[in-house]
């Protein structure tokens, strides 16, 4: 049985968002929505996290940071693009320094659009991400057995 | 106490303490959530967390970190075995300190700036609580005439608390540090998963972090055992009293955890030494002189 889905620890990184989505990400973990019901813990350490919540678009400055955090996370890991800017670049997509959505830097598993993204959407996205996490966890367990 | 008895107790502790500690951790998280107006995670959430950590990719920054963590876990379990097997309380205190030192080494050996800062803060925590812990062992000796936990728990004529109530209060004070509760959760906080207040585990991931959690469960059971020992004497009914007190102490710790902001290390060091000097010192002087 995969336990990854029962304990999704998240790490949150703000690319270049207007902070609207960041506030919603934190609201998801507050008493009103209580993400901890599903075992969600907000970690500050990529090495402890399972789900990478990115808000805001990727630009020339932060693309390396996004990649660095992603690379420091251990398998199985899932990336959720939170908000329309993280999905496609959104309203900032025409800016001279903006590259685009998070998928320009790292592989994204779940897209959660919205401006700002609603906590309900985020919970749905995390639940969808958790299923991906379970599949990856099973694949990793089989790979370990194969050794 | 025979060596065999302690070895058997160690094996039993190694099996039972993680189970009890896991339930306590789950209860802690639910009660904390209710205090914050949330529903909270399922009771078995800490178990799910640790099982998940063991399923994660196995990675380590160097070859020695996990060895230190395993040593820390072994000595924490041995310490529990010595205590619940009725062994020497002084030896028990030294063994759990050795476990803490191994854990500090595990954080230092990674050479990561945040882990080093966490290790330095953990060292200050050990410095803060250690005098009071030693006074506790000496206090039990002065009150009952023995360092053996089995002799203390079967002492005739009332529990040790009657003679060492100030030491009990001092132990309650440092228990907050030992259980890693706010306001003294300087190096490995449960709540704020940030670089400095969770510095100890910065470089620990996957199975290594799972071992750290299991060690913390074992330590919780051991430290609550210490508080229970104050209320034990020859009367078998005292076990019920001790269990009730332990439950109350655990609830009080959660209450304090949720209601007090984290202090600076200077305040922790000064206040815990002051409590050790006043609580421990006066109580011991009273027992020795009067």
TrEMBL record, chain A:
<protein>
    <submittedName>
        <fullName>Ech hydrogenase subunit C</fullName>
        <ecNumber>1.6.5.11</ecNumber>
    </submittedName>
</protein>
<dbReference type="Pfam" id="PF01058">
    <property type="entry name" value="Oxidored_q6"/>
</dbReference>
<keyword id="KW-0560">Oxidoreductase</keyword>
<dbReference type="GO" id="GO:0016491">
    <property type="term" value="F:oxidoreductase activity"/>
</dbReference>
<dbReference type="GO" id="GO:0051539">
    <property type="term" value="F:4 iron, 4 sulfur cluster binding"/>
</dbReference>
<keyword id="KW-0479">Metal-binding</keyword>
<keyword id="KW-0411">Iron-sulfur</keyword>
<feature type="domain" description="NADH:ubiquinone oxidoreductase-like 20kDa subunit">
    <location>
        <begin position="18"/>
        <end position="128"/>
    </location>
</feature>
<dbReference type="InterPro" id="IPR052375">
    <property type="entry name" value="Complex_I_20kDa-like"/>
</dbReference>
<keyword id="KW-0004">4Fe-4S</keyword>
<dbReference type="GO" id="GO:0046872">
    <property type="term" value="F:metal ion binding"/>
</dbReference>
<comment type="similarity">
    <text>Belongs to the complex I 20 kDa subunit family.</text>
</comment>
<keyword id="KW-0408">Iron</keyword>
<dbReference type="InterPro" id="IPR006137">
    <property type="entry name" value="NADH_UbQ_OxRdtase-like_20kDa"/>
</dbReference>
Automatic annotation (TrEMBL), chain B:
<keyword id="KW-1133">Transmembrane helix</keyword>
<keyword id="KW-0812">Transmembrane</keyword>
<feature type="transmembrane region" description="Helical">
    <location>
        <begin position="268"/>
        <end position="289"/>
    </location>
</feature>
<feature type="transmembrane region" description="Helical">
    <location>
        <begin position="160"/>
        <end position="179"/>
    </location>
</feature>
<dbReference type="GO" id="GO:0005886">
    <property type="term" value="C:plasma membrane"/>
</dbReference>
<dbReference type="InterPro" id="IPR001694">
    <property type="entry name" value="NADH_UbQ_OxRdtase_su1/FPO"/>
</dbReference>
<keyword id="KW-0472">Membrane</keyword>
<feature type="transmembrane region" description="Helical">
    <location>
        <begin position="6"/>
        <end position="27"/>
    </location>
</feature>
<protein>
    <submittedName>
        <fullName>Ech hydrogenase subunit B</fullName>
    </submittedName>
</protein>
<feature type="transmembrane region" description="Helical">
    <location>
        <begin position="214"/>
        <end position="233"/>
    </location>
</feature>
<dbReference type="InterPro" id="IPR052561">
    <property type="entry name" value="ComplexI_Subunit1"/>
</dbReference>
<dbReference type="Pfam" id="PF00146">
    <property type="entry name" value="NADHdh"/>
</dbReference>
<feature type="transmembrane region" description="Helical">
    <location>
        <begin position="67"/>
        <end position="87"/>
    </location>
</feature>
<feature type="transmembrane region" description="Helical">
    <location>
        <begin position="239"/>
        <end position="256"/>
    </location>
</feature>
<feature type="transmembrane region" description="Helical">
    <location>
        <begin position="93"/>
        <end position="111"/>
    </location>
</feature>
<feature type="transmembrane region" description="Helical">
    <location>
        <begin position="132"/>
        <end position="154"/>
    </location>
</feature>
